[in-house]
């Protein structure tokens, strides 16, 4: 397990899932705004979309930081 | 290079008395946190849907915002003070011994509840596959199985953290993949934003029920304490803790918001059964009813298009394993807090005895698992002994079983987190020399007693949020109102008696050499660069304060 989580493949998988999360966040935001517009009641859905995008960004930044030569 | 040299020196100078070993890796640290917090949604979702109905996502959002503030506070504090005490240690350093004890005692309540609540829910999930374990049909079988689980976990922890940490790591990874798949299929193929808005409009709860829902929603976010608990056993904690915590905070927030939004706005793949009166029911009501609220994640997953059929088969097992791990985190956490509290002379020396072979706090494990078993008996009593049902109905409005455990869980969390925010503010002002590799955002810099400090605005927001949740718990839960404060008051009496017996100050703090202690903490953690930074910061702060004093 420890060897797996230290491998390049694991890092790529994490960034891949992060990218998928960001896409899902963008879809959630788009569909919510397209169908109900900007309404206060839809705030939890907007926050969810933004959080998914943020997760993707965090994963991408972690991946880039890990690949930077020290 | 400096690290390995430092580590070598530390190894050479290993103390003769047994101490906790640093065996938790970054992924292990994340897993400890995830296995504790991640399992909460399996218990919390159904309870919140049952209470907050069409505003369940708002309840989760409110509790989630507070949770983010709590998470950021723990991240900053655990990275700066990587010791096993967690919240209790931060409060003791920031506010003094007696408040440190109260915060630690509240966390101990939470961890003992954690052991029982999640072992209980674990069996609830398993009962979806093995009906003989169903609490409502076979309460005695359910009771004995939960009891056996608790005893088994106590034994596992007695043997050592490394074994259980590896177990956590595998299951956490599987669960994250599973939950991501469920939510992906749910949002892409079945989520209808217009249905979400419609449900919120038509099923908005009363203010009392919304407050009840918010107080239960915080249950879904309890457990970040685990990361700071593991801090003393994590390699390079100042670097690892912020990284794992931020990922953990985001992951948990996303899962909680996703499930609650899906429950309100998802078009189920199959028609739902009619309710008891023969009427059609909405998804949130179906998930929050008595039959399903104990295993709502499994029921929701089974209704997701395409993936639901597969999810229905494995989610009860995966959920049960994750809940079991969360229960295990309770054993781990309670024994480590008691160990740290005993080291700080807040609890008797009995709690800091470490097993010479396994190097685990064996006595603490036995005592707090004993408390967990008592709580189990109290929660299960009305079911296994029908005679006591009337007593519960009279004293606790009939709250028993999982509701009893949930109430106390919410009380302990809200009480201890309130103190942690106050401690964070106090430490920012009074201990500015400690290097903080991670700081909560939005700070106001100013000069305090001659030194430059930063006032954390997010801590104020977090305190107001968690204090309001504590108020909601006291207002809406009978058990939380009676048993929670009783636990704290009894603990304070015990604390005062112990301090008096030992000749320590009862209400004031014992003299602590925090500077030396902090240097030692950073050295033992292998954070040698931070230790140097701390020493030079101390010099600068002393000079600034001396200058301000002479002026």
Based on the model shown, name its key terms.
heterodimer, A: about 70 residues, mainly alpha, 3 helices, about 0% strand, elongated, B: about 550 residues, Amino acid/polyamine transporter I, 22 helices, about 70% helix, globular, disordered N terminus
Descriptive report:
The complex is a heterodimer of chains A (70) and B (551). The model of chain A has no long low-confidence stretch (mean pLDDT 80). Chain A has one domain (2-67). By secondary structure, chain A is mainly α. Chain A has helices at residues 2-5, 8-36, 43-67. In chain A, helix 2 packs antiparallel against helix 3 (43-67). With 551 residues, chain B is mainly alpha-helical. Chain B has one domain (40-418, 477-504): Amino acid/polyamine transporter I, CATH 1.20.1740. Chain B has 22 helices and 2 strands. Chain B has helices at residues 2-12, 26-37, 40-52, 56-80, 87-95, 97-126, 139-159, 161-189, 193-202, 207-217, 225-230, 237-265, 283-288, 296-302, 308-343, 362-384, 389-396, 401-430, 457-476, 478-502, 514-524, 528-550; strands spanning 443-448, 451-456. In chain B, strands 1-2 form a two-stranded antiparallel ribbon. Chain B starts with a helix and ends with a helix. Classes of the chains: A mainly alpha (70), B mainly alpha (551). Chain A binds chain B through residues 1-2, 5, 17, 20-21, 24, 27-28, 31-32, 35-36, 39, 41-45, 47-48, 51-52, 54-55, 58, 62, and chain B through 25-27, 57-58, 60-61, 64, 166, 169-170, 180, 183-184, 187-188, 191-194, 196-197, 200-201, 243, 246-247, 250-251, 253-254, 257-258, 260-261, 265.
